[in-house]
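hi! just following up on the protien thing from before. the input was this:
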Amino acid sequence: LDEAIADFNDAVRLNPKSAKAYCGRGIAFAKKGENDKSNTDFNEVLGLEPKDAETYCSRGVAYAFKGEYDKTIADCDEAIRLDPKMAYAYGGRGFAYYKKGDLKTALASLNEGIRLDPKMMVTFYPLRGVTHGEIGDFDAAIADCNEAIRLNPKLAGGYAGRGSVYHRKGDFDKAIADYSQVIRLAPAVAS
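and the predicted 3d structure came back as:
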């Protein structure tokens, strides 16, 4: 990522009006967890291209990583207003509503994102599953996590989500099996 950031720095230096360079660097900063720097770049993009739905969505996700869920919702809402078929914006908004404890609104947003693009939204199936689990719909919760695992058997979140639902149900052997799979797939996440 550092090399990519250096390349984008060069691109910005050569063309300070390049929205793509700022956006690329912003995404690289976000992947590194440098959300303030990523949002500075996303703000530059929006100054140059104020109707860029993808940048609103990206900035919203960066806000989510900072725990600024109201800003996440606002940016994802704007992304959806600009591009109503942007599935990932619905997912980001659903995550923010989940974190705020508004489970019904989270489910509605996640449902729409998954409806729009079920394969791209694979990482949001476990979140929707956990949300179903928290409202007591364990069958729907497990079905969502199973779908995530079917689409990507190496997605630790699918196993983590399903493990948490099994734990909530009191099915501890299945929970342990899923948590063990999380440890195998993503030891850093498991700790």
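The two ends are 24 Å apart (CA to CA).
The mean pLDDT is 93.
cheers
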